Amino acid sequence: MSQQQAVITIDGPGGAGKGTISLAVAHRLGWNYLDSGALYRVLGLAASRKQISFDNEAGLAAEAAVLAVSFGADDPLLGVRVYLDKDEVTDEIRTEQAGTAASRVAALPAVRTALLQRQRDFDAPPGVVADGRDMGTTVFPDAPLKIFLTASAEERARRRYKQLIKKGDGANIRALQEEIEERDRRDSERSASPLRPADDALELDTTEMSIEEVVEKVMALAQASQFVR
Ligand code: DC
Questions:
Q1: How far is the centre of ligand 1, averaged over its atoms, from the C-alpha of 36 (Å)?
Q2: pLDDT over 70, % of the chain
Q3: Is the pTM of this model over 0.70?
Q4: Ligand 1 pocket member 160 (CB < 6 A)
Q5: 37 CA → ligand 1 middle, Å
Q6: How many structural domains are present in the chain?
Q7: Distance from Cα 73 to the centre of ligand 1, integer Å
Q8: pLDDT tens-digit profile of 166-219?
Q9: CA 33, CA 124: separation in Å to the nearest integer?
């Protein structure tokens, strides 16, 4: 990969606002958007449907290699529309249960390897905003702009709660915070591409920031770097 890459990586824990921010920045720049978490979520769903055990690393990696996942236009509330085969699964992959399944399959090194090239293929002109946990460390290590978004677990639970209520789903804020903390632990403690900022990532704590403020900040950083005009 060359230094001329037009790649912005946005990593961080679940609920830090990566999806919303990445999508908004991709829109503003007219770039592609990679929601890498959706790949792990769809794999978790495919595994459940095909009854592949979350302990069966080789079976899950084989499934990852042939996973018929595709992306469509954005949904204002749910982000990019996601399909497994011809079936729209946008909503189904956004449940807490699907998040936990994703986090489990994502902990397996063979699964991560099987999904690597598919993620790199999103690096196509005019550029890509890549959202995930290991975009800056593993998938696009040469990206010229790397952001690591954080927010307190309490604030992330509050944001998730508001999202669920807006969708008309019930939610318990304490249970959400516990799930978020448990997922942070699993994502950070795994040996394969754990959640951590790349050495050259800029960390942005969004606890006290609005979505618009974060988007403006990332746009300013992108414009200050030489690869965005
Ligand atoms: O960003 P998300 O909540 O959709 O991600 C779901 C899970 O997938 C998350 O708990 C960890 C995993 N994941 C990952 O391991 N690496 C990525 N690049 C993106 C997501």
A1: 7
A2: 96
A3: yes
A4: no
A5: 4
A6: 1
A7: 21
A8: 888 888 999 999 999 998 998 889 888 888 999 999 999 999 999 999 999 999
A9: 10
